[in-house]
Design goal:
The protein is α+β, with helices and mostly antiparallel strands. The chain is built from 5 helices and 16 strands. The chain has 3 domains: 63 residues; 146 residues, Sandwich (Immunoglobulin-like), CATH 2.60.40; 112 residues, Immunoglobulin-like.
Length: 337
């Protein structure tokens, strides 16, 4: 009985966890390629696996990587340069192809072409060269990622009838700086707004790193209050990419009522702390717009389980009954013995 109870409980948890995952119905594709960075003469730290280059104005170099095709068949790979940004979770990601709004120049402009296609026969490898040219002036640090992924044909895309396609990619960091010593960050507060984000009510806080430097991990805290009562609080660790914005979504327990709210933001680093206080209003019009965009089940201020509330309730009930039955059987066996 003990073994059956544990097995059944595990099975229910497994099915419940995967019930809302659309990719659960499709097996992962095997990753059959890899990449490596080829050492560069401008490399600062030879002990790291990414590019950390110190270069001066008007200098040139070829940033080279080797792509290995481990499969037995021919493949084509796309190599692209993506500028580093800071996402809403406070993480540095390499996704942006266009120039950064706060940076005088981005790595996607220093490397041309920014995207290359490379054909590699099965079991072979090739070196891809990315020509990098520093402009007339370079201050601080610019950061990007070199992304390598398999190129899918139109036929492969059409075969995917359920709209799910596994795209495995490798990214090698590319850091180019003018000096060994990093600049000190200068953070600014860019405002707050309320809107639906991923079909949920959120307060969005926007900050910016105005300096071309990578910050160290810092503590971020945002507190929304109304009439001196805390409405929602969010705390996390953040790290800014050079010259980038960061918009943090703070999910509320339902749509905020119309009225005036206060926002207090704190970012605390080892050497400096930033604090901002602001006030924002939620209008009746904004409330109505969010009600139209957010599913009905999300409008309940006490609801935090969203569209899977029924599934959660059913699964929770089954788990409770299983545990009660298991405890009852154990007590009965002890009483018998």
């Amino acid at each position: 009985m003990k073994k059956w109870g544990i097995t059944s409980l595990a099975a229910i948890l497994y099915l419940f966890i995967n019930a809302g995952n659309p990719s659960f119905a499709k097996a992962d594709e095997h990753i059959n390629f890899s990449i490596e960075a080829i050492p560069n003469k401008f490399q600062v730290d030879s002990g790291v696996t990414y590019f950390d280059l110190r270069m001066a104005a008007n200098q040139k170099t070829d940033v080279r990587i080797r792509i290995y095709n481990h499969s037995s068949y021919d493949q084509t790979f796309l190599t692209s340069v993506r500028n580093a940004t800071t996402n809403g979770n406070g993480l540095i990601v390499y996704e942006q192809k266009k120039q950064l709004a706060l940076a005088p120049i981005s790595l996607t402009e220093m490397i041309r072409p920014a995207t290359q296609s490379t054909f590699i026969k099965g079991g072979e490898s090739k070196v891809v060269s990315l020509p990098l040219r520093i402009p007339n002036k370079l201050t601080g640090t610019v950061l990007a990622g070199i992304r390598v992924e398999k190129k899918f044909s139109e036929g492969d895309t059409k075969k995917d009838t359920i709209g799910i396609q596994n795209r495995h990619a490798y990214i090698i960091g590319l850091k180019v700086r003018s000096e060994i010593k990093d600049l000190s960050p200068e953070l600014t507060y860019e405002g707050v707004q309320t809107k639906s984000y991923l079909t949920r009510p959120n307060v969005l806080v926007k900050l910016a790193n105005q300096t071309p430097t990578i910050t160290q991990p810092m503590k971020f805290e945002a507190v929304v209050t109304k009439n001196k009562k805390v409405v929602v609080r969010k705390t996390m660790e953040v790290r800014f990419a050079p010259s980038t914005y960061m918009t943090v979504p703070i999910e509320t327990m339902g749509i905020l009522q119309a009225g005036t709210y206060q926002m207090a933001v704190l970012v605390e680093g080892k050497e400096r702390t930033w604090k901002w206080n602001d006030e924002f209003k939620v209008t009746k019009k904004q409330v109505k717009q969010m009600e139209e965009k957010i599913p009905k089940i999300e409008k309940n201020p006490n609801s935090f389980i969203g569209e899977w509330s029924k599934e959660l309730m059913v699964a929770s009930t089954l788990i409770i009954f299983l545990l009660l039955g298991y405890i009852y059987r154990l007590k009965k066996q002890q009483h018998t013995s």
